[in-house]
Amino acid sequence: MNFGKDAAFAAVTEVPFNGHPPLEALAQAHLTPIDLFFVRNHGDVPLLNPATHGLSIEGLVEHPRSLNLHDLAALEPVEITAALQCAGNRRDELLAVAPIPGELPWTAAAISNAVWGGVRLRDVLMHCGPLADAAHVAFTGLDSVSREGQTFGFGGSIPLAKALDPDTLLVTHMNGEPLSPVHGGPLRVVVPGYLGARSVKWLSTITVLAEPSTNYFQQKAYRMLPDGAMLGENAPNSVICWPSKDSQHPAGTLSVLGYALSGGDPIERVEVSADDGRTWQPAQFLDEPASRWAWRLWSVTVEVRPGEQQLIARAFDAAGRTQPRDTGPLWNLKGYANNAWHRVHVKIQD
Ligand SMILES: Nc1nc2c(c(=O)[nH]1)N[C@H]1C(S)=C(S)[C@@H](COP(=O)(O)O)O[C@H]1N2
Ligand SMILES: [Mo]
How far is residue 169's CA from residue 313's CA, in Å, rounded to a whole number? Predict the structure, then answer.
């Protein structure tokens, strides 16, 4: 089963279904087509009936509620363009440093950008009245995931302040289409600027808590060390989508294309070096950001001389935060959050 994906979509695993578009394809459209948008699943893809799908809001709220999609549709509709990036994006480069057992070898294509339609999570939460000790908002999906001898729905949580951000959405539409089953239809969360894992698919329960979710995917996975920080906001990242790794090109000028994003301050500048980081050329942005959460596609033309060459990209956000130079110091047990300078080796002919 390919869940409506394009022939060019590359499956990483069939069960659970995981895959990504060709890296070059990502730089070709500001909005990633649905049939190319990457997929990250930890369990099955439940086929849910939108007519009967229910959402319950419970925990530290004055008025717990059960809503259906019809109730949600009565709230103010909102659309936000946002990139979704898996914490495992670019894990293959960390794998080249040292093995990372049990994790998928994602390339730099575990990311895509879409316009998400739905309602504000804020509107639903305010309707339920969070109590004074509310500090986190947890989400649980209707898929079945097995870990440590237990079977449960994938889940995670975000701080209450992020849940009340008007851009954090309960999503029913993607690029103008009803949300497909593989992307969490009929209802998912989209938490712009955070790692993809918090954007829980097949959403059935929202629980307002004093502490982060106890779900395995909040407590055990998606932290930097077994007891280290839980992942949240995406750091600045930029990737060269074209030319591809180890490709051959004539000497002279070469166009370089890529994406950049950040979960904090917006991306302000992308630079490319063709001389090992001695000199850098600023890239031009190809798109006007529809929102601060959208990715920026960029291009730059560099001079390349015959021989082996490395192209390097790095981005800066508006606060001057940038990407670390080397992958080595970023290596971690689970292979998360690699945002080192992105390096692509190419061969330039005489
Ligand atoms: N219920 C559920 N939600 C989930 C997941 C999952 O396995 N189950 N995977 C998460 C992860 S790790 C990512 S990166 C994003 C991927 O969203 P996509 O498949 O729509 O690209 O969904 C998140 N939401
Ligand atoms: Mo992910």
Answer: 31
